[in-house]
């Protein structure tokens, strides 16, 4: 890579590397960028103090999140009806907060490297051990702090490609660690001896396909027919009371056309009213009609409970439903409600007063299947998708990605859903309002999908599976503890040397 730049040139290069890393994710899926982008950052971090490392990490984060989650502006301005200037300010603030995680990672890495180098730890060891471990732990922090935003975790780029075999074992944090380790080995190749890094890279990437040889999960022998209804209702039209009739008529008509499927699935909040408002007049008569032809009807709808409102997926005509647990801040509930209550009216956000459902809910039974359900971006939180496993034979995600418009956001969301299927060794059914509706197989491959932005029905068959991948059995704990031990090991070994 030549002489390392300094000052603003290094910061600019870090920002460009972050922006380029977005190309590793859907819809671009250029996997080498998941190594090259972080490799540039690791190279720029070498030999720097905490302040400089924090600044360069911050620049990388600005590039990554500025290019990768700019679709937040569409949600705030186009559908939240916030003035463009204010929406821009809020989006910039959001990106600045996310970039702060890379600033924290850079500062911590430089601080640790300085002290461990003084204790005699070799720079090559620090490069290969310190940075993958810190990357994983900071990604983990980002996945839960302030309710969490695990978008663009590096490991998602590995869902399709040579490293996919590791995913059912190590999950997304393990995949991130392997990509950062690959980036560190690439940086290590810049100086001799080079044989070790070459052998390590080759072993890491060539061994992954062998990990698909074990059959982590097996088909139960039951195949079910499914019809997923993509209503394509404009977000600005959805919650107007005058439009309720034609929206329900569209979903009713499209469902009747596919009567006989074991499962007829509507997307998140497809019902433009509280479930109880239309259950007796529309939903239950339709479900009874469909049941006569062997179909179960499962719909996404706001649910009015005794203690508040819920975002729910319900089997019509049965006491079976899932209520969303991980709500979107400001979109589905208001943090610090007592102080910020006026924001709902200001931002014109409908249905912004939901309550969370229970953190652990049993599989939803419908269409002859035991389904592990997630609603909208809950599928970005692997631990929550894992909760109903291994009992569930099929994963289901219902979503309304209309909030993001015609941007890269829905493609990134589909990629995350596919990764969950690969981790769990389960097929995943994904029903959305206007895309991307899809069936994903148990290896995380999108087997069938509908085009975006048009009313359509995806008719397909899905085979339930049983068994558990190592990730389902153990979750993310082993990888996170391994990262902690990787940081602790150099301290422990140098302390022993000093005592000796």
UniProtKB/TrEMBL annotation:
<keyword id="KW-1003">Cell membrane</keyword>
<comment type="pathway">
    <text>Protein modification; lipoprotein biosynthesis (N-acyl transfer).</text>
</comment>
<feature type="transmembrane region" description="Helical">
    <location>
        <begin position="125"/>
        <end position="145"/>
    </location>
</feature>
<keyword id="KW-0808">Transferase</keyword>
<comment type="similarity">
    <text>Belongs to the CN hydrolase family. Apolipoprotein N-acyltransferase subfamily.</text>
</comment>
<dbReference type="GO" id="GO:0042158">
    <property type="term" value="P:lipoprotein biosynthetic process"/>
</dbReference>
<keyword id="KW-0449">Lipoprotein</keyword>
<dbReference type="GO" id="GO:0005886">
    <property type="term" value="C:plasma membrane"/>
</dbReference>
<feature type="domain" description="CN hydrolase">
    <location>
        <begin position="229"/>
        <end position="464"/>
    </location>
</feature>
<comment type="function">
    <text>Catalyzes the phospholipid dependent N-acylation of the N-terminal cysteine of apolipoprotein, the last step in lipoprotein maturation.</text>
</comment>
<keyword id="KW-0012">Acyltransferase</keyword>
<dbReference type="Pfam" id="PF20154">
    <property type="entry name" value="LNT_N"/>
</dbReference>
<dbReference type="InterPro" id="IPR045378">
    <property type="entry name" value="LNT_N"/>
</dbReference>
<dbReference type="InterPro" id="IPR003010">
    <property type="entry name" value="C-N_Hydrolase"/>
</dbReference>
<dbReference type="Pfam" id="PF00795">
    <property type="entry name" value="CN_hydrolase"/>
</dbReference>
<feature type="transmembrane region" description="Helical">
    <location>
        <begin position="57"/>
        <end position="76"/>
    </location>
</feature>
<feature type="transmembrane region" description="Helical">
    <location>
        <begin position="12"/>
        <end position="45"/>
    </location>
</feature>
<feature type="transmembrane region" description="Helical">
    <location>
        <begin position="165"/>
        <end position="186"/>
    </location>
</feature>
<feature type="transmembrane region" description="Helical">
    <location>
        <begin position="82"/>
        <end position="104"/>
    </location>
</feature>
<keyword id="KW-1133">Transmembrane helix</keyword>
<keyword id="KW-0812">Transmembrane</keyword>
<keyword id="KW-0472">Membrane</keyword>
<dbReference type="GO" id="GO:0016410">
    <property type="term" value="F:N-acyltransferase activity"/>
</dbReference>
<protein>
    <recommendedName>
        <fullName>Apolipoprotein N-acyltransferase</fullName>
        <ecNumber>2.3.1.269</ecNumber>
    </recommendedName>
</protein>
<dbReference type="InterPro" id="IPR004563">
    <property type="entry name" value="Apolipo_AcylTrfase"/>
</dbReference>
<dbReference type="InterPro" id="IPR036526">
    <property type="entry name" value="C-N_Hydrolase_sf"/>
</dbReference>
